[in-house]
């Protein structure tokens, strides 16, 4: 089976979050299921810099007003199709906005172009290669499903995966004439959304199937509380909705062979983690002692519950614990974390930004990772924590609830516990979860049993890739 995957980022070439990790890992996982994947991504400078030898497979003289070339290349085990459109993607800053955090005003055009090219490639193929299925990730690629449905590719099945329903790609109605869609695409059953245009909405209503990145999140988005205005649409297509849990690349995230940490270790050699803890304390300027060391590796946003975390820092320090933070996001929250670091020198330390190697060291050296999200479609950092013996302390939502076994008395006694769960959006519950973690950390046998249980868990892509492959094949059979 041949699959065209379409996404706005892919690890290790360009990454702002977990989307890139998933898009980068799925092709290899699906290959073992007999699915051949080629991934279409934008030609950002960071992507083009890694291409090396590439072949032009399609050219446009006026793609949404810009010249563009589709390049085929093989990079690090990934078969890539790169949309080289300098007018759209050759920019300083991030994939979606400038260095100051302001979104590009023409994002509607940039990602409509990506989606249109995906539909063109699906219809025309590439020198004998023609996909059976198009798999679009998030709003930046979701319009591919609409271009297929309202164009010559209407018989080609598409799947849209929701990585985070909060980001929908909403734009004013006056862009519709420039999208190149037929008049019938305007309407409630098309791209129109509350008087404007919704890219994700258009994809969800057009796709042959919808997936989310965890079973619990698939249920949550059917409710007004988590549906972000799309719960009615999602419920209307519930028979086409599938919750498939994300996995992780077990080779990249392998504490026994990780060259990015101070000292490799395994579940049977947990004492070797001490070298990573010391390296982490040194890197962040934290006191060197035996107190529980919590970490946060996250976007610093309301969704991630970071405002709640700010309110819990004094409590955490008061319990004798320490905290290291790596992340960026809302400027007021960044400032609040930096202020807490100044107030609690040696106990709290913060690095604004993202650093992939440092995130590995933090998972290897931290005792527990805090994830107080208000909602979390899947989450990957708790999976990395489990893999590295860094016990997750997480809100009971989405994929966090699906992947962490709470350390209640029965679970601890049976050796099944892997972390601590607490109700979301509740400051007192967060305080209680931190206190539980500190108490459990003082019981070394119980704590190490939790670490080992988490490290033994299988969060590879094996089961999830099989579910994706089965879904793709069923859709192809329907279309035949």
From TrEMBL:
This is Glycogen synthase. NCBIfam families: glgA, PRK00654.1-2. Residues 290-441 form the Glycosyl transferase family domain. Signal peptide: none annotated. It catalyses: [(1->4)-alpha-D-glucosyl](n) + ADP-alpha-D-glucose = [(1->4)-alpha-D-glucosyl](n+1) + ADP + H(+). InterPro entries: Glyco_trans_1 (IPR001296), GS/SS (IPR011835), Starch_synth_cat_dom (IPR013534). It comes from the Bacteria. The gene is glgA. GO terms for biological process: glycogen biosynthetic process. Belongs to the glycosyltransferase 1 family. Bacterial/plant glycogen synthase subfamily. Its EC number is 2.4.1.21. The keyword Transferase applies. Pathway: Glycan biosynthesis; glycogen biosynthesis. It comes from Sphingobium ummariense RL-3. Pfam families: Glyco_transf_5 (PF08323), Glycos_transf_1 (PF00534). GO terms for cellular component: cytosol. ADP-alpha-D-glucose binds at residue 15. Residues 2-235 form the Starch synthase catalytic domain.
């Amino acid at each position: 089976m041949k699959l065209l995957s379409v996404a706005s980022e892919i690890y290790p070439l360009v990454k702002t979050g977990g989307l890139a990790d998933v898009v980068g890992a799925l092709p290899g996982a699906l290959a073992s299921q007999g699915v051949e994947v080629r991934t279409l991504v934008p030609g950002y400078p960071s992507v083009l810099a890694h291409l090396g030898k590439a072949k032009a497979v399609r050219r446009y003289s006026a793609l949404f007003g810009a010249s563009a070339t589709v390049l085929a290349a093989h990079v690090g085990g990934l078969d890539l199709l790169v949309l080289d459109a300098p007018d759209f993607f050759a920019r300083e800053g991030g994939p979606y906005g400038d260095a100051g955090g302001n979104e590009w005003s023409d994002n509607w055009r940039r990602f409509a172009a990506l989606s249109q090219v995906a539909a063109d490639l699906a219809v025309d193929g590439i020198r004998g290669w023609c996909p059976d299925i198009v798999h679009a990730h998030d709003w930046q690629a979701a319009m591919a499903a609409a271009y297929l449905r309202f164009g010559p590719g209407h018989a080609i099945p598409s799947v849209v995966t929701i990585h985070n329903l909060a980001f929908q790609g909403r734009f004013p109605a006056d862009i519709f004439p420039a999208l190149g869609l037929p008049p019938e695409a305007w309407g409630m059953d098309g791209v129109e959304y509350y008087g404007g245009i919704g890219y994700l909405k258009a994809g969800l209503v057009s796709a042959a199937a919808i997936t989310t990145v965890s079973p619990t999140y698939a249920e949550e988005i059917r409710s007004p509380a988590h549906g972000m205005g799309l719960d009615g649409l999602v419920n209307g297509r519930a028979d086409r909705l599938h919750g498939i849990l994300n996995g992780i690349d077990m080779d990249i995230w392998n504490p026994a062979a990780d060259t990015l940490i101070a000292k490799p270790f395994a579940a049977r050699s947990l004492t070797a983690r001490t070298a990573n803890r010391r390296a982490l304390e040194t890197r962040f300027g934290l006191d060197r002692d035996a107190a529980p060391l919590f970490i946060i590796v996250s976007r610093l946003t309301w969704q991630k519950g970071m405002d709640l975390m700010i309110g819990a820092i004094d409590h955490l320090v008061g319990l004798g614990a320490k905290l290291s933070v790596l992340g960026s996001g809302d400027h007021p929250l960044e400032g609040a974390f930096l202020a807490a670091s100044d107030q609690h020198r040696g106990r709290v330390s913060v690095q604004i930004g993202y650093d992939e190697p440092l995130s590995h060291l933090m998972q290897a050296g931290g005792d527990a990772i805090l994830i107080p999200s208000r909602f979390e479609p899947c989450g990957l950092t708790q999976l990395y924590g489990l893999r590295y013996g860094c016990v997750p302390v997480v809100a009971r939502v989405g994929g966090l609830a699906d992947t962490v076994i709470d350390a209640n008395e029965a679970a601890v006694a049976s050796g099944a516990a892997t972390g601590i769960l607490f109700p979301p959006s509740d400051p007192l519950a967060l305080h209680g979860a931190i206190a539980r973690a500190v108490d459990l950390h003082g019981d070394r046998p119980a704590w190490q049993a939790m670490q080992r249980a988490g490290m033994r868990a299988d969060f590879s892509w094996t089961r999830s890739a099989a579910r994706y492959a089965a879904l793709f094949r069923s859709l192809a059979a329907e279309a035949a």
